[in-house]
Structures are given as C-alpha cells and as structure tokens.
Write a structure and sequence with these properties.
It is a single chain. This protein has 410 residues and is an alpha/beta fold. Helices cover 28% and strands 22% of the residues. The chain has a 9-stranded mixed beta sheet. It has an 8-stranded parallel beta sheet with strand order 8-7-6-5-4-3-2-9. Strand 6, helix 7 and strand 7 form a beta-alpha-beta unit. The radius of gyration is 24 Å and the shape is elongated.
Length: 410
C-alpha cells in the first residue's frame, strides 16, 4: 500500500494487540533493588498474574534472579506456582477461611505459608493441620492502620496467645510477623514511623509470649527505595520489580529500574476526514480541519481506560499522537494530523512501554486518568497474547504456554 494515500476504508488482517514482557528488565530490576537493602531476604510479589506480566514466567525469572520468596494474594496463585514446579518459599495472604478449606488444605499440602490475622482463620488452619498431621506455617499479620487484613492492636495479644498454644499443640508454626503500611506509597509520612513503632511493640509482645518469628517484614517497593530503616528481615517488592513508580516522587529510572511491559497494536485503518467530522460515540470530538484518523483495535474490553480521550499517549512512526473521541469496547481512534507523513495501515502503535525508547509509560497513562501505572497494567485483559523475551521491543516469537499464568489468578 502506498504511504500517505488518501485512504477511505482499508483494514489489516492482524486485529490483535500484543503484550510484550521483557523478562530481562524484571531480572535487572530485582538485582538493582537487592543492592538497596541489607535485609537478609527478598520477596518478589507476583499477585494478580504478576501485575499482568504472567504469573509463572515472572516467578521463575524472579527466583533465578535472586528472589528468596514469592508473594501472592490468593491461594490459587500460590498453588498454580507449585503445580508449575516452582519450589521457592511462597507466602499467600488473602482467603476466606469459612469457604475455602479445600483450597487451604491444598495450599498447605504444597508447603505454602499463609497469613494469619484472626482467631477464625487460626481455628480453620489448626483444624486442617490436625487432619494433615503437620503444622500450618503462618505469618501473623498486624493491622497497623490500613484497616484491611490483620489483627488490630487491641486483638493482638489474644491472637498471639492462641497462636502460641497452637504451636505447643503442633498445629501451627509461626514463621513470621508482618504488616502493610497505610502510607506505604508516601514514605515520609509520619504515619509510617508510628505504624512501625506499633509493629515493633507487637513483635516484642509475641516474643514475650513465647513465639520466635524468623521473619519480620514491613517494607514494600517505596520503602525499599526510600526508608531503609524499615527493612527488617525481609522486604516485599511489587511495583518496582516491574519498573513502575511505587510513589509519586520516585522515578524508577533514577534507581536503575525500567518498565518490563509494553502494549502494542497494529494500525488497522487509516482514513482522511473533512473538517467538522464527529468522531466515535456521541461525537465528543469534532475535527476542526481535514485530518487523518487511525484505528487501533483495542478498547476498554482490553483494559484501555476511557479517560485517555484527548491525551497524546500513542506512539506511531516515531511520533506521539493523541487519542480522539470516545474509547469503544474493542477499538479507539487516534488523530494522525493533517497529512500523516510516513504512516500507513499495518504500522505498529505503541500504547505504552519504556520511555527510554520514546514511548509513554504506564505511569503516564495512569496520570492521564488521575491514577497510577499499577492500575493500568492490571487492567490489561488476558485475551491479549503475552510474548516473552529479553527486550520489550525485540521479543522472539515465543508465545506463553496455554493457560500459563492465567485462570485461577486475580
């Protein structure tokens, strides 16, 4: 097809976008983060299908790159890792004890450590462990102000006492004590120091009751980079291992971190429209002069937020162009300008990737909708194929095995 021809209706046969994952970036990010902590143990958090990057692939890369532990939210994620042959220690922290006893049992059979933050969870775990004939290995969670999981300060002593009794009974083993900071993404906030002080009191109380936890862990990505005094025995790295900013004031590139994920799609249609043309639903955009429009075959069903309309985020042919009109379920339009020099059907549009290559970052997309990059990468739909390689821009034609990293994961 001749470039720059006035194309009124032409479409490509390649209608799929693609998620490219640079595993070498994840490896390098983990190594860079490990250099920033003196904590003896390093956990790579791979919850939510490894933040959309691929559960099993990222977990293997993390372990091979020096991660001592893996962290998942859901038990099914941890079980999937074990079934994939990954033997590294795993902590999983989100489950409903009254409805998932079979899943809990399977996780314990696979030697998965679980979080424990209530008497109800303790009773279920102890009962399953009694049936298995071996203790459940747990990390007691303190609610230090986030008001999510974990025991509140006023309930801590009772939880510790019952956990100690369960240890004596042979149904539990307390390996760790942990908390998650309510102001984790604002490291300088005074609430963090107050929460850590409460955490240290909780650990002291547990030890006074006879528990001997091996691992104390508080720090997530932002604290790894900005609060070394919070590192204790283990740090938990999530966003940072994927090259995203864990706090507004922390630029990943300043710490040698780079994005591991890019999203691309072919330009499947280019058309010239006159001035005064309404674009997409409700004509929320109307051209003020003759323009070339390009069609991208991704939409909100793929995780593209509607809030990017009007934002210059998409890279095509070495330049950045704005999204025009309302994002649809499976497609959206970009404004290629009055003449679209050097752009044609079949060209690759880079939605986001590594800013070092001129692309917008996932953090840029997050800022465009008043959020952060982690929301963007976790929106990307499983229907988009993942391709793995050593460069987010030059990946080999290796496709993710069917079902790998998908299915029973958040």
């Amino acid at each position: 097809m001749r470039r720059n021809a006035p194309i009124h209706e032409a479409a490509s046969t390649a209608l799929s976008g693609q998620v490219k994952v640079d595993l070498s970036a994840i490896s390098d990010n983990i190594k860079a983060l490990k250099k920033r902590t003196e904590a003896p143990f390093f956990m790579a958090v791979v919850k939510g299908n490894a933040y959309g990057h691929g559960l099993v692939e990222v977990a293997r890369t993390a372990v091979n790159s020096g991660a001592d532990w893996l962290g998942t939210a859901q038990l099914t994620e941890a079980i999937a890792l074990r079934k994939a042959g990954i033997t590294a220690p795993i902590l999983s922290w989100l489950y409903l004890a009254s409805q998932t006893s079979a899943t809990i049992r399977e996780a314990l059979e696979y030697d998965v450590d679980v979080s424990l933050g209530s008497i109800g969870q303790l009773e279920v775990l102890a009962g399953i462990a009694r049936q298995l004939g071996r203790p459940a290995v747990v990390h007691l969670e303190l609610d230090s102000g986030l008001s999510r999981g974990g025991a509140r300060k006023e309930d801590w002593a009772e939880l510790v006492a019952q956990a100690r009794q369960a240890e004596l009974d042979g149904t539990l083993r307390v390996r760790g004590i942990w908390t998650h900071l309510a102001w984790a993404d604002v490291p300088a906030h005074p609430g963090n120091a107050a929460a850590v002080a409460e955490f240290e009191d909780a650990v002291a109380g547990a030890r006074a009751s006879g528990l001997d936890p091996e691992l104390r862990h508080v720090s997530s990505s932002a604290n790894i980079l900005d609060r070394p005094e919070f590192h204790f025995d283990m740090v938990r790295a999530g966003l940072a291992i994927y090259g995203l900013a864990p706090a507004d004031h922390l630029n990943p590139a300043d710490f040698g971190l780079r994005p591991a994920l890019s999203v691309t799609a072919p330009l499947v249609m280019v058309k010239k429209v006159p001035a005064g043309t309404g674009v997409s639903y409700e004509h929320q955009a109307i051209t003020y002069e003759p323009r070339y429009l390009g069609l991208i075959p991704l939409g909100y069903a793929d995780g593209i937020p509607k809030g990017i309309s009007g934002r210059s985020l998409v890279q095509i042919g070495g330049r950045t162009v704005p999204v025009i009109g309302k994002v649809c379920m499976d497609q959206f339009m970009v404004d290629l300008g009055p003449d679209a020099p050097g752009i044609a059907v079949g060209d690759t549009a880079v939605l986001f990737g590594d800013p070092a290559h001129g692309a917008a970052s996932a953090d840029d997309w997050g800022a465009a909708i008043g959020s952060h990059g982690d929301e963007i990468i976790n929106r990307i739909a499983p229907r988009l194929p993942r391709v793995y390689g050593s460069s987010a821009y030059e990946c080999p034609d290796y496709q993710e095995p069917a079902g790998a990293g998908h299915g029973n994961v958040a």
